[in-house]
Amino acid sequence: MRTRSIVVALTMLCGFLGWRQTEQQQQSIAVNSGAMAITDSDVQLLRQDLRAQKQRLIAQNLPMNESEAIKFWAVYNRYGDELRQINDEKYRLVREYGEQWPTMTNEQALIYIRRWLEVDEQVQQLRLKYVPEVSQVLPGKKAATFFQLDRRISMMIDVQLSSQLPLARSTENQ
Hints:
Elements: H1 2-31, H2 40-61, H3 66-100, H4 106-137, H5 140-164
Helix pairs in contact: 1-2, 1-5, 2-5, 3-4, 4-5
């Protein structure tokens, strides 16, 4: 079943992402003891791998004829480029949060969460922008399937990423 294969693939993808995030946190801790930390190029390679895996999952679970595929992947590549820019901002936010977390003020925490929600809104607006384009190259059910897959994969990655971030807990008694 395709649904089962996508669940297995997403589980493996999120497990890998969680392992890399945990490894990154351990390496960051190790920096203080003189060990080498994960580099930006390592993170970029991981992100590139995640994009490739996402594309494979979509290809495996979105049946298209040759004509549809040629048109769809051209639209998808434009969509992916725009999504990557939004995800670059998400990555910057995660890095910034990680750097500020131990000393984050109440004001910084509120700014961070607003920026995070703005990034989420940008992704939503991008999907809305591309619904007409995708529906011009794919029939309605296939277009809907693409957006369902895209959203599910993104949610799985977001859940995994969010679960790796410490909560912005107050140290004050309230």
